[in-house]
From TrEMBL:
Name of the protein in its database record: Diacylglycerol kinase (ATP)
Organism: Streptococcus henryi
Domain annotation DAGKc: ranges: 3-137
Swiss-Prot/TrEMBL keywords: ATP-binding, Kinase, Lipid biosynthesis, Lipid metabolism, Magnesium, Metal-binding, Nucleotide-binding, Phospholipid biosynthesis, Phospholipid metabolism, Transferase
Family indicated by similarity: Belongs to the diacylglycerol/lipid kinase family.
Cofactor: Mg(2+)
Length: 341
């Protein structure tokens, strides 16, 4: 009996992370071959759905493993390419963007494609939850709505390209005075929330924009979203909540926050104002919308052991990211102090 030759398809974004993947493709392919995969590569193009369409093609062609190499946007596209299929290949990721929220959740080395590829050789896997927003529209990290989310669309595309979702948060201090509440009805498995909200988050992982305390107890495979509803638009109160986030995720017990675990969420605006939905940092349509958590939908290779600092290569982008995070925290404190005078 002839044994099945495992096949892997590497789908990589050549422009992510200062072209870091482009410089390491050959070595990554060698590593995958050493793990017993017959491996080939596809370089994405600027064409719409380039990564998504290739992921669908590779899955239908019977590839056993698809590796998404790039930022969170590339990973999102690849997931959207295979999530609707009945038979889905396993996935692995090689983070080559800046924020890399999904890589943080799976504990994959960031900024080092070689070390990230080696995680596949450990053969540690997680059946990951995936969010479904519309027919054939999926997300891997977070769905968001509310006036604050909509204001962040004004972030310049160049800044977003450089710093990912964290650019929204860095811009957030400037935008906070413009935040307003909107009337909304949210249905979930625990009941109904009806009232005013300035921010609505439905998180799958615990990492948003590099901050890992927004949904501190999020689990990757329990079939539940972490629904976070911020009920205030008062600037001083929002600043206080942000400080609680930065102080170990203590915001989850605050009376101005609804913090709920649920397998589905229905978001219905109760005014004539448009409510835009943000999926993994990109505009993803308008409410009303139903979000469903597809439990254990895609099997990902992950590093379930603790990663040592030696496995991380802190390049200039990563250092800049950390600097922005610190700057954001300091600006929040400064603005809070200024308003308190």
């Amino acid at each position: 009996m002839v044994s099945h030759q495992k096949r892997a398809r590497l789908i990589y974004n050549p422009t992510s992370g200062q072209e870091i993947m482009k410089k390491n493709v050959a070595e990554v392919l060698d590593i995958l071959e050493s793990y017993g995969y017959e491996t080939s590569a596809f370089q994405t193009t600027p064409a719409q759905n380039s990564a998504k369409d290739e992921a669908t093609r590779a899955a239908l062609a019977g590839f056993d493993l698809i590796i998404a190499a790039g930022g969170d946007g590339t990973i999102n596209e690849v997931v959207n390419g295979i999530a609707p299929l009945e038979k889905r290949p396993k996935m692995a990721i090689i983070p080559a963007g800046t924020t890399n929220d999904f890589a943080r959740a799976l504990k994959i080395p960031r900024g080092n494609p070689i070390e990230a590829a080696k995680i596949i050789g450990k053969n540690q896997r997680i059946k990951m939850d995936i969010g479904k927003a519309y027919d054939n529209t999926y997300f891997i990290n977070i769905a968001a709505a509310g006036s604050f989310t909509e204001l962040t669309y004004s972030v310049p595309s160049q800044l977003k390209t450089m710093f990912g979702y964290l650019a929204y948060l860095a811009k957030g201090v400037e935008l906070l005075p413009q935040v307003s509440k909107v009337p909304v009805r949210l249905r979930h498995e625990k009941g109904v929330f009806e009232g005013d909200a300035s921010m609505i988050f439905a998180a799958i992982t615990n990492s948003v924009g590099g901050f890992e305390q927004i949904a501190p107890d999020a689990k990757l495979d329990d079939g539940k979203f972490t629904l976070i509803v911020v009920k205030t638009a008062n600037l001083i109160e929002i600043l206080h909540l942000i400080r609680l986030v930065l102080d170990g995720g203590k915001h989850i017990n605050d009376k101005r926050v609804e913090y709920i675990k649920t397998s589905f969420i229905e978001i219905e605006p109760l005014s004539n104002e448009r409510m835009m939905i943000n999926l993994d940092g990109e505009y993803g349509g308008d409410a009303p919308i139903r979000l469903e958590n597809l439990k254990n939908h895609i099997t990902f290779f992950a590093n379930t052991d603790e990663i040592s600092d030696d496995a991380l290569m802190w390049d200039q982008e990563e250092l800049a990211l950390e600097a922005i995070a610190q700057k954001f925290a300091h600006e929040v404190e400064d603005l809070d102090a200024e308003l308190g005078e």
